[in-house]
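Quick one:
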Amino acid sequence: MASDACAQIPPVSSDYTPKGTYETIAGLKTYVIGPPSPTKAIIDIYDVFGLAPQSLQGADRLSASLNALVIVPDFFEGVYVQPDWIPTDTDEKKALVAKFRDEQAAIPKNVAKLLEVRAAAGDKWPSAGDRWGVFGLCWGGKVGVLACGAGNEGPGHVFRVSGTAHPGALAAEDAEALTVPHILLASPGEPADVVQQCKEILARPGKIGVVETYGSMFHGWMGARANLDNEENRSEYERGYNQVAEFFAKYL
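Output:
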């Protein structure tokens, strides 16, 4: 377990009220959970469905497991992919998703915004020092991993550990560029060949990483798509967040 708190965290619930509060960090509405003077902290990046209860429950679990500050910035500022846009089986839906991808979800601008949040949060919670990690769901995993490659250094900037679940736009070159320990929890919904490439890269000398595929799960099982009324999904959601917490406990 990541800490004794793991044994005290209540089971995952399908009827859940998030335990945190909201503050403004770097101009973004941000969900905040954790101690007021943290010694370690995580920026948790949601998937394209935004501030969903399932994602916030995951943030609460990471905070409780690690006794860490966890913040979830609203990068999309309230404009999210809507469930009825999926599947993209009409021209209208395709256009809506494409517009969202090119505007709200544009990767370079959100990597830059993540670094703004990191700097502002570092100033707001100086007790965490340089003990900051980043964890992302799907789209959020891509943003987080790109911030942990070349240039991941310096006060108010550095991340010491990173992780992702059911990563979006998974690429072996991102694993090559990583400068920190990294955990990747995949589903059969991601390209198995790229998952295997990332696993091999992170097993090389000088790299630290864990790559595991949750074979019975689906893309999104730890994020907004999680069906926590389903016993198997609920169990694997809990196992996934525990595994991330244990990894972060080692390196954060």
